[in-house]
Amino acid sequence: MRIDMHAHAWLSHSAGRAVQALSRGFGLQCEASGILEDLVREERRASMDRVCVLCCAARGQYVHAVNRFAASLFAKDKLLLPFGTVHPEMSAWEEELEYLACAGIGGIKLHPGYQGFVLDDRSMYPLYEAMSGRFCLLVHVGGSGQGLQASTPLQLKKIAQDFPALHIIGAHMGGWGMWQEVEEVFAHGCSMNLWFDTSNTSFHTDKACLGRLLRILPADRLVFGSDWPFFRVGGELERLQAVAGLTETQMDALTGNGLGLLEQYYPCLA
After folding, report:
1. pLDDT tens figures, 64-99
2. CATH number at residue 183
3. pTM, two decimal places
4. Based on the number of CB atoms within 10 Å of its own CB, is 208 exposed (0-12), middle (13-18) or buried (19 or more)?
5. Which of 21, 51, 182, 236 could form a disulfide with 175 if both were Cys (CB 3.0 to 4.6 A apart)?
6. Structural domain tally of the chain?
7. Tens digits of per-residue pLDDT, 8-31?
8. Sheet architecture: strand order including 50-54
9. Rounded Cα distance, 213 and 216, in Å
């Protein structure tokens, strides 16, 4: 099964505003529309079998609506695997976790810079504990358009060590724009509960840098992510393969590695 582990999409009436905000926030013009139906078409064109649609809320007051949208995606297309979200400023995040679990959503997306918290802040520990063994966590790591260095490779390593029962996917190969630190932090290995996605990396690195990351990070826990709508799915697959010099067998592994992880948390895949 071929899986895109990192994508974002919205309904047609809100996609335009969302894409504009992404482009402004990160200084990178999105290639695609952001519209959900366009994502589905592109994933199928690229022969992907599932795509994880990452839903995230900037403020606690938006979490309820964002998670209801995430749950609605199951009925729109069998290709879609939604990730829900929570926010540390919420007083009732336990209720949101319960809602997501009952809805069949086994993944949580957090973006420390976007949501205004620091990844390894002790106030986040009760939330990580509540997720452990119940949800997998995909978290943005590295720089962000908000200018807040709220998540670093070292913080990612610490969280993974402190919560060994929590499966964590470090986005952007463990640290967007901080790949030298990724090399330094994970040069001698990483916790078995820690995964990495390739999203938004090949565009910003050269062959030497990307090659070092691929040698350092665990090959069986590295998964493909397009970061759509920043990049088109087929184009990102081609660029990643070209820049890294990967074989077809290696590309098959990248797109297939996430299945075993997701099967543990998504009843629809079991």
Report:
1. 999 999 999 999 999 999 999 999 999 899 999 999
2. 3.20.20.140
3. 0.96
4. exposed
5. 182
6. 1
7. 999 999 999 999 998 888 888 999
8. 3-7, 50-54, 80-83
9. 5
